[in-house]
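Progress report, Aim 2. The chain analyzed during this reporting quarter is listed below.
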Amino acid sequence: MSLASVVRASYICRMGYDRPFKGAKIALIVGGRLLVVRRDVDKPIPWPGYLDLPGGGRENGESPLACALREAREEIGLVVSPGDVSWRRWYDGEIPAWFFLAHLHPARAGEIRFGNEGQGWDLVRPADYLADATAVPHFRSRLRDAMTGTGMMRGEADRQVG
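Predicted structure tokens for the chain:
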């Protein structure tokens, strides 16, 4: 076994990435605004028409973070760096999944290129998403966890990155 494989295995365990999971979501705060995607209504999917966050199912044994970053790239065209991610948590349940939070500079909004999943995207105040009855309920609670964990619930959610 090489030193690189030992270091990688240690990192995976330290991050908790060795837990079984089906997929990952990532809340992207772009200049103080949350990037949301309106789900399709004409497909047999859970929560049709609701406000969602980028993310989806695991592919080819990828890590949780790799899954979330790939989904962000595919769904909204943003290449997010692992260094942009400020919070992560694994959620056990019917569908074990990871949830990440990342902060991006406001100029990154110009790089958003909507993919082929959903009806469209928008940048909203995180507090508005948390209060929106059409936001996927379990993602509202996970976003609240992430905002609490990063100090955003103390009024920093609308701070503009400059």
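The CA atoms of residues 13 and 19 lie 8 Å apart. Residues 137-150 form the longest helix (14 residues). These observations will guide the mutagenesis work planned for the next reporting period.
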